[in-house]
Amino acid sequence: MGRYTSAYSNLRCGLNEVGSLRKIAAVKERSDPIGLRHEINAVCRGAIVLLSAHLESYIKELGEVVLDALHVQCVSRTHLNDALFYHISKDLLDEISETREPARIAKKVFDFVLSDLPLWSRTGPFPQPLPVEASLIQPLIKCESTSIVLDMVITSVI
């Protein structure tokens, strides 16, 4: 996977936007730092919020690139972390764990087996593209999960 992905290009554009706000604040600070302090603070706070949004978007887009690369580059599932498999089927697994009636549990297990069983294997690459949805990308955005998911995927793709 190359360093310059579409996700990286979008991040660079976003950083240019943040840089523009920084320059506006610098110009105001040079002209009248005391009189314009509230405007300077507002522009700087806005730049921080914008930077945070662009970083979150970058991580989400990078996750999409990685998930796509797993299938396109036929990456073997042998060394992938188990957490990835959980997140692939999280919605179905959560439904199963929240169901109490045996007949409904059985139906949900059959649904799981029909839809996701081919993905749950340690041999060979994924047989189909992975779903690029919020439930699978979200662990990349959460700080406590980022290192686990990035470690399990990036080492396999690179």
Largest sheet: none
Q: Using only CA atoms, what is the Rg?
A: 22 Å
Residue-averaged pLDDT: 82
Name the overall outline: elongated
Give the termini distance in whole angstroms: 6 Å
Account of the 3D structure:
It is a single chain. By secondary structure, the protein is mainly α. It has one domain (6-157). 73% of the residues lie in helices and 0% in strands. The chain has helices at 6-31, 37-72, 82-88, 90-98, 102-116, 134-141, 143-157. Helix 1 runs antiparallel to helix 2, helix 2 crosses helix 6 and helix 2 (37-72) crosses helix 7 (143-157). The chain is elongated. The termini are close together. 11% of the residues are buried.
Topology:
Blueprint: H1 6-31, H2 37-72, H3 82-88, H4 90-98, H5 102-116, H6 134-141, H7 143-157
Helix pairs in contact: 1-2, 2-6, 2-7, 4-5
Short description:
The protein has 158 residues and is an all-alpha fold. It contains 7 helices and no strands. It has one domain.
Can you give keywords for this protein?
158 residues, 7 helices
